[in-house]
Amino acid sequence: MPKVVPGYQKEAKKRILQAALEVFEERGYYGSTMDNVAEKLNISKGAIYRYFSSKHQLLGELYASGPENLKSMFLTTAGLSVVDASKEVFNRMVTKSFASLWVVFLAEASKNPDLRKTIRDNIDGFNDVLEELLKKNTPNMGRKELDQAHRSAVILGLLFNGLVSWVAVGIPETEVRKVWEDSIEILSSAFGLKA
Fold it and tell me: How many domains in the chain?
């Protein structure tokens, strides 16, 4: 078997994941096959199986990259307050297709221990990203403030997941965004962040 250059492997996985995301959004997760993903990339299905053993693994890998994607999005909002950055990132992330795929991921995770672990890792990863953002905005925090930053990050994560579910079941995105913005304002006020 020929050796594959490591940098190429990383790029190949990234391209496969992007194609899988597009296929899942176009056809829905349950209506998609590995053949559809291969077709999107104009490669053989075997080439995908070199990197991913199943459609479940593709779904898991898509969500495993969530905390890193969130961190990247927050980097693009440099210069904005934590409140405005949170609003901006939420507006970019929460779409009908994202919400629909999130619900599928939850359903699949209820049956698959690997996907459940991915959810737990994502929760921890998202909390870490949000906590770091809060710490960055308020340097020299004491123990009490650090605990409050952690609790605020957890609350934001719970709120985010709940509101994504709202979008998935058809509640208008404008209404969901308003709830997010109001919640961010309330939390920022309680935490003493600048709006």
Answer: 2
Q: Give the integer Cα–Cα distance in Å for 172 and 111.
A: 29
Q: Cα angle vertex 95, ends 56, 48, to 5°?
A: 30
- Which range of residues forms the domain containing residue 27? 6-56
**Which residue, of 23, 38, 56, is where some domain finishes?**
56
With CA atoms as reference, report the closest residue to 152 among 95, 103, 97, 190. Answer: 190
Residue of 20 and 141 predicted with greater confidence: 20
Which pTM was predicted?
Answer: 0.77
User: Which pLDDT tens digit goes with each residue over 98-146?
Assistant: 888 889 989 999 999 988 999 899 888 888 887 787 777 777 777 887 7
Task: Answer yes or no: is 1 within a domain.
Answer: no
**Do 89 and 22 share a structural domain?**
no
* 85 torsion bin: left (phi>0), alpha (psi -120 to 50), beta (else): alpha
